[in-house]
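Hi support team,

I submitted a single chain yesterday and got back a structure, but I'm not sure I'm reading the token output correctly. Could someone confirm the output below corresponds to the sequence I sent? I've pasted both exactly as they appear in my results page.

Thanks,
R.
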Amino acid sequence: MDSSGSTTPGRALPFPARDFMASIVVFLVALPLCLGIAIACGAPPMLGLVTGIVGGIVVGLISGSPLQVSGPAAGLVALVGEVITDFEMGGLGIILLVAGLLQVLCGALRLGQWFRAISPAVIEGMLAGIGVLIIVSQFHVMLDVTPESNGLANIVSIPQTILKGLFPLDNSSHHLAAMLGLMTVAILLLWNLMPKAVKVLPGSLMAVVMATLAADCMNWPVKFVTIPRDFLSVFTFPTWERFGLLADPQAWVLAFTIAIVASAETMLSASAVDQMHQGPRTRYDKEMVAQGIGNAICGFLGALPMTGVIVRSSANIQAGAQTRLSAVLHGVWLLALVSFFPHLLEMIPRSCLAAILVYTGYKLMQPKAIRKLWNISLWEVVIYGVTLVTVVSTNLLEGVIAGTLLAVIKLLYTLSNLQGKAIEEDGCVKLFLKGSATFLSLPKLVSILERQPLGRELHVYVDELNHIDHACMELLQSWEHQYENSGGTLTVEWQALRDKLPDRRKNSEPRTSGRRKTDAASK
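Hi R., thanks for writing in. Yes, this is the structure output for that exact sequence:
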């Protein structure tokens, strides 16, 4: 079977069968991630599965991105953990309900595309910061040690946790949990080297199976996943009293943050998914509404927030999915599992799920992203680094704000960075403009022009000018008249300048003068 899901050329499975097979693969990928992300957030594992079920069945039916799969995302772990710490599980439901309604509103106002308009350096820095937070918190869980309350404290306490794993005291089982965690990571790394035929089964699933069998056969006293027998008992439905927390401005800040981060991650994931297949493209506003409805439902149930998730989506496409039926079915399989076989989940060691998230956190960091940003400019690396450090040392919102402010400063610098170099050659003064001629650089352009000698033959070259706006264009036209009145002659590449204008006015002719040479061809 190839990556598209067909067996041999001319004998492709009909799309319902291909979607059915793809749904099994996505279900196997989603299962350990749903459980692990919930545990990483400090929430009951069942809530991660509830979000996966809603993301599959509800969002899958109304999604604007046919092959994208939604569910709990590692990118929201730090933010959700902060909400649970400040407002407990009941507060998370109210805040998530508000965030979902905000997403629906944004989709209705056709703002879906705007959530893609975020600096790549900020996105990469945010994901890397989240990856660091996941690693330093789940490293402790991987050894059955309770993590600290923030990222810096988790980093500082890592040596102490390592000592617990190496030198177990008081008959503790930290070393046994560490062995299961290391075995899980080793399986995940080795699975990448397996042949394609073997990798049809997800590495995370095989790691869970092997760690579960080892813990069961050896009867190790490590911590296991706990699943309530009453499925409905995990839900935290909203009450009028809980809505009172909306009087706290911090609750609104967190709701807006969840809506923005979840939307941005979903839109970026949808864009990446579109590049992986040749089918229908994403309808971003419809996808935004679908995500908002899903998050509102999860908020009503007291579950975790969801986003479109690239890992599950890419597995869906590689398994041969053709329609959104595969995403819907994967939610059905999750629902069947928690309804009829919850005891199987209780056999899974928590250290194994934590190890999977440690590996996921490393992949979120994407070391190659730094090299890519470096090739663009040093500014991008600085934005990336500031965003990462701020996310780790403070919180996700402040990290994104810090990175975005730097990106805006960089943009303003780019739009105002104008250079002019004049040289005299063969009795003619040649002025070379470089950079961006916008209204922000008007003072600099005035200064450059005023430095030029009057009453001479002056040529203005604009090959290295990135773009020009109408304010600077009109300034040049006005200055041209003044310069010629001083007895000089001026040659400006007006056609090249008009080509750099941002809109239809680029075709309008500048004011003319009988003494002016209109473009380079008239020299």
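A quick pointer for reading it: The first helix runs from residue 15 to 41. Let us know if anything else looks off.

Best,
Support desk
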